[in-house]
C-alpha cells in the first residue's frame, strides 16, 4: 500500500501515549529544554508542590536571555539576570537537571545549543517555554514552544496534552542565488503569505532548495516558522542531517548511531500524504530581503521601496502604515537602500551559528565598520564561539571594528540590559522587529548575516549581492 502519512503524522503517531479523542492526544516528550526566563518558574512550581521531575535526564537548561554578553561577563554583570541565572542554577542542581553554565561548552541560546550538542535529534519531540522552539524542526525534530502550565505539566509527567495541528507544506523549488540565504527565503515567505498564514499549523518545508541547504540554514528557516504564525516548522532529515549528528556529544555513537540512522531514514512525508494546504515558492529569482516595518511580514527585496500610505484605500490600514513609518523614521515610498543605520547586531537563534558567522566574516574581511555604526557579533553558543575563534573569525570581526561578545540572546530581545537606544536604527539578524523589541523606540530591520555585515561597513543599508568583492 502507498504511504499516506506526512512526516509530522509519523512523529505525532510515534509519540502518542494516549488518544484523548476529538483530535487531542497526550504525547511523550523526549527533550525538555529550559532557559533563564521560563525555566525557573516552571522548576519552582514543581518544587513548591513538593513534586519531583518525572524524568530529569530528559531535561536540560541553559542561561541565555538575561545574561550579559559583555566580554568577560559573570553571572551578575547584569544583576537582574544574575538572580534568574542563580535560580536556574540552584533549581537545576536540586532537581537533577543538567545545566550548561556560563563559560562551559554547551551554554548558549537554547535553540542553538540543543541541536549543536545532539541533545535534540531527528524524530524526537522537544518542548521549551519559548516560541522559537520551532527552530529544532530544521533537523527533523517535532518541537513546540509551550506555555508555563504545559511546561510544569511536562516536568511532572514528561508528556504534553495537545490537539493535532493542521498541516501546511511549502515546497521550495529552484536554487537560491548568490548572496541569497535561508533568512531571505524565510522573510520572503512571511512577506508573501503573512504572519497569520501558519496559525494552527505545522509547516513542512521541502523541495530542492531546502534539500540544498546546510543544516544550519534549515534551522534558520524553521526558526522563522513561528513568525508565520505556525505551531512549528519541520524539515525531513537527510544524509546532511545524519552527517551533522555524527560527532555531536549527546548523539548516539557506533552501532546505536547506525540504528538511529535506520530510523531517521523513515522520517519523510509519503508520496500520498495529505496536507490541509500546499504552497510552492520558486526561490531562483529571490533577492536579498529586509524588513522595513514593525512586523516580520513587512519585508521587501533590498532593491525595493517602503510602501506609501497614498496607495492604501482602507483607512485603518493607511493610518497603521503612517504610524509604522513614523516609528521607523522612514519616508513613504523611499528606497530602502541608502538608509543610514546606527547599529548592527549579528546574533540570535535565527542567525548566530558558525555558518552565519562565516558568511558575515566573509563580507567584513579586510574592511572597517563605518564610524557611525556600533556593530556586535554575539555567537549563539559557547561552542560556536570557540569554533569561530579556532577559525580566526573573531579576529576578522575585531579588526574591522566589531565587538566580539559572549553567547546569549542579547539585543535580540534586550532582556539582559543591553539595548539599542530610542530612534537608533539597527540591521539585525534576529527574527522580530516589533515596536520596542530591541529597546524602547529602537528601529529594527531584519536581514541575513551577510546583509547586516555589509550594512555595518557601508553605514547604510546596501544590497550585499551588489557588492562585487563579496561575491567573487
Ligand atoms: C522571552 C521568551 C519567552 C520569548 C519567546 O517565547 O520567544 C523570547 O525568546 C522571544 O524571542 O520573544
Ligand atoms: S535569540 Fe531572540 S528569538 Fe531567540 S530565544 Fe533568544 S530572545 Fe528569543
UniProtKB/TrEMBL annotation:
It comes from the Bacteria. Keywords: 4Fe-4S, Amino-acid biosynthesis, Branched-chain amino acid biosynthesis, Iron, Iron-sulfur, Leucine biosynthesis, Lyase, Metal-binding. It is an enzyme of class 4 (lyase). GO terms for molecular function: 3-isopropylmalate dehydratase activity; 4 iron, 4 sulfur cluster binding; metal ion binding. Residues 9-459 form the Aconitase/3-isopropylmalate dehydratase large subunit alpha/beta/alpha domain. The keyword Amino-acid biosynthesis applies. PROSITE patterns: ACONITASE_2. Its EC number is 4.2.1.33. Pathway: Amino-acid biosynthesis; L-leucine biosynthesis; L-leucine from 3-methyl-2-oxobutanoate: step 2/4. It catalyses: (2R,3S)-3-isopropylmalate = (2S)-2-isopropylmalate. Its cofactor is [4Fe-4S] cluster. GO terms for biological process: L-leucine biosynthetic process. Pfam families: Aconitase. Catalyzes the isomerization between 2-isopropylmalate and 3-isopropylmalate, via the formation of 2-isopropylmaleate. Heterodimer of LeuC and LeuD. This is 3-isopropylmalate dehydratase. The lineage of its organism: Bacteria, Pseudomonadati, Pseudomonadota, Betaproteobacteria, Burkholderiales. The gene is leuC2.
Amino acid at each position: 500500500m502507498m504511504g499516506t502519512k506526512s512526516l509530522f503524522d509519523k512523529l505525532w503517531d510515534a509519540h502518542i501515549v494516549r488518544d484523548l479523542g476529538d483530535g487531542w492526544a497526550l504525547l511523550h516528550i523526549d527533550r525538555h529544554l529550559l532557559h533563564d526566563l521560563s525555566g525557573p518558574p516552571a522548576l519552582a512550581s514543581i518544587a513548591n508542590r513538593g513534586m519531583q521531575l518525572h524524568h530529569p535526564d530528559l531535561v536540560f537548561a541553559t542561561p541565555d536571555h538575561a545574561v550579559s554578553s559583555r566580554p568577560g561577563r559573570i553571572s551578575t554583570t547584569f544583576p537582574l539576570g544574575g538572580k534568574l541565572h542563580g535560580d536556574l542554577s540552584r533549581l537545576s542542581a536540586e532537581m537533577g537537571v543538567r545545566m550548561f553554565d556560563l563559560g562551559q561548552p554547551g551554554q548558549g541560546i537554547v535553540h542553538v545549543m540543543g541541536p549543536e550538542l545532539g541533545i535534540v535529534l531527528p524524530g524526537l519531540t522537544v518542548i521549551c517555554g519559548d516560541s522559537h522552539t520551532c527552530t529544532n524542526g530544521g533537523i527533523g525534530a517535532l518541537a513546540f514552544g509551550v506555555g508555563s502550565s504545559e511546561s510544569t505539566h511536562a516536568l511532572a509527567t514528561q508528556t504534553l496534552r495537545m490537539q493535532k495541528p493542521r498541516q501546511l507544506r511549502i515546497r521550495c523549488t529552484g536554487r537560491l542565488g548568490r548572496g541569497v540565504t535561508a533568512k531571505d527565503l524565510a522573510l520572503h515567505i512571511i512577506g508573501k503569505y503573512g504572519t497569520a498564514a501558519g496559525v494552527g499549523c505545522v509547516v513542512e518545508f521541502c523541495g530542492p532548495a531546502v534539500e540544498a541547504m546546510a543544516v544550519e540554514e534549515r534551522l534558520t528557516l524553521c526558526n522563522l516558522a513561528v513568525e508565520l504564525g505556525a505551531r512549528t516548522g519541520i524539515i525531513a532529515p537527510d544524509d546532511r542531517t545524519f552527517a551533522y549528528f555524527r560527532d555531536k556529544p549527546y548523539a548516539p555513537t557506533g552501532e546505536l548511531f547506525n540504528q538511529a540512522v535506520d530510523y531517521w531514514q523513515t522520517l519523510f512525508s509519503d508520496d500520498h500524504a495529505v496536507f490541509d494546504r500546499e504552497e510552492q515558492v520558486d526561490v531562483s529569482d529571490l533577492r536579498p530581503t529586509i524588513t522595513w516595518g514593525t512586523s516580520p511580514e513587512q519585508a521587501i527585496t533590498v532593491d525595493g521601496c517602503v510602501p506609501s500610505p497614498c496607495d492604501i484605500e482602507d483607512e485603518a490600514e493607511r493610518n497603521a502604515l503612517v504610524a509604522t513609518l513614523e516609528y521607523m523614521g522612514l519616508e513613504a515610498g523611499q528606497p530602502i537602500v541608502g538608509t543610514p543605520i546606527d547599529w548592527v547586531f549579528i546574533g540570535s537563534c535565527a542567525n548566530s551559528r558558525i555558518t552565519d558567522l562565516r558568511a558575515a566574516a566573509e563580507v567584513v574581511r579586510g574592511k572597517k565598520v563605518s564610524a557611525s555604526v556600533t556593530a556586535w557579533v554575539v555567537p549563539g553558543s559557547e561552542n560556536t564561539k570557540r569554533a569561530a575563534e579556532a577559525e580566526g573569525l573573531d579576529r576578522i570581526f575585531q579588526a574591522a571594528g566589531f565587538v566580539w561578545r559572549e553567547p546569549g540572546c542579547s539585543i535580540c530581545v534586550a532582556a539582559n540590559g543591553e539595548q539599542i537606544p530610542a530612534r537608533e536604527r539597527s540591521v539585525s539578524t534576529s527574527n522580530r522587529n516589533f515596536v520596542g523589541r530591541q529597546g524602547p523606540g529602537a528601529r529594527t530591520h531584519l536581514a541575513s548575516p551577510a546583509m547586516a555585515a555589509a550594512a555595518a561597513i557601508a553605514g547604510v543599508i546596501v544590497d550585499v549581492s551588489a557588492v562585487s568583492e563579496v561575491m567573487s
